[in-house]
Amino acid sequence: MCSSHGSPTSSSPPKRPADPAILARLADAHCHPSDDECFEGALESNASSKLGTICAMSSSLENQEITTKLWERNKNKILPCYGLHPWFIHSLSLSNSPTVPTREEHYTALFPSSTDVSQPSPSLATLLPFLPPPLLLSDFLSTLTNNLEAHPTALVGEIGLDKAFRIPNPPELASSAKNSDLQTPLSHQIAVAEAQIRVAIRLERHVSFHSVRAPQDTVRLLERIRGEPDGWGRVHVCLHSFGGSPETAKQVQKMHPNAFFSFSTIISGRSPRFHELLRAINPDRLLVESDFSHTSQLDAQVWEVFEQICEAREWSAEECVERLETNWRNFLELEPEGTGGRRKTKKQRRLEKAPVAEEVDEVEESNPK
């Protein structure tokens, strides 16, 4: 999910017209039709899309249900995904009490003053009336579990970490800047992301993960989970619209054989090293995505990144679509019991030993708001 996922602006014109036969073999691994401003338009666009699969992410508390409705209207094409995006987790309370804290109690604890943690942030008083009522994390996890159990093929997404996001000011505060200075603490983000990953592991569902300006934190989170014998290697994680450096991508691939990478031109394509990054990914771990909510633009966006991959990897269109088609099919499969990651092809039988986690370069990504 990105600042432009609702914008129909394309990053560059296509080099050739989109081929419907190729699109039919591709999956948009990450998009946001549940955020389309026109629900009926989203239904129509999803039905007319030439893509083989549309992986529809949930992001906020409100659009989990919309994702279900989209799937109900187009079960052959929509793959529903349920989860809470880091932009929307500030309403979740980590309290172990069965009683939901008051709005003031919850947000005062979540957004303390930078100079005195016993006091709330000075910005909170103005914003507090506009913030959503608190919800226990345990209650949301119950909803997440119910949605996944009701949809046996559903994935977990979109979840993750975002160190760029600031809580937006509401329209009622017209004289204020677009964003406040309030940022959901990283510790809170990690707790919520990890809790959702635990649900994914327990129910054996794959994960779509958002990481903005948090490469080291993402690596550490995944490494900690990988070190526990709880079935993490059975499921796959897709690092969507990956914007890290080629060096970071190589490190993640060595450490996490169950990691895939999906790319969009609207986000990943901003990097001057985009083609170098595409070449740094193992050919069997590449996926494509649009990261768009304007569903009428999904085909064009996926086609655009498809062309970029062909160019960067010097693949023919047929070779590229064959690889992406196989990769998507492999992504959806579970690994055998007792494995620590993806099964290797005949050319990849040599086991990779995961190195000790090293510091990695910070990813330069724009503020999503």
Write down how many β-strands occur, each being a DSSP E stretch of 2 or more residues. Answer: 10
Helix content: 25-40%
Q: Assign the CATH architecture of one domain.
A: Alpha-Beta Barrel
- CATH C-level category of one domain: Alpha Beta
Report the average pLDDT across residues: 88
**Outline type:** globular
Report the CATH topology name of one domain: TIM Barrel
| Total DSSP helices | 12
Keywords summarizing the entry:
single chain; 369 residues; TIM Barrel; 8-stranded parallel beta sheet; 12 helices; 10 strands; globular; disordered C terminus; Metallo-hydrolase/TatD-type; TatD family
Q: Would you kindly provide a brief summary of this structure?
A:
With 369 residues, the protein is of the alpha/beta class. 35% of the residues lie in helices and 12% in strands.
Describe the structure.
This protein is an alpha/beta fold and 369 residues long. The strands form 2 sheets. It has an 8-stranded parallel β-sheet with strand order 1-2-3-6-7-8-9-10. It has a domain at 83-98 and 124-289 and 301-347: TIM Barrel. It has helices at 20-23, 39-48, 63-73, 103-110, 124-127, 137-150, 186-203, 215-226, 246-255, 274-280, 298-313, 317-332; strands spanning 27-31, 53-56, 78-82, 92-93, 135-136, 155-162, 207-212, 237-239, 259-263, 286-288. The radius of gyration is 20 Å and the shape is globular. It contains 12 helices and 10 strands. Helix content is 35%, strand content 12%. Helix 10 (274-280) packs across helix 11 (298-313).
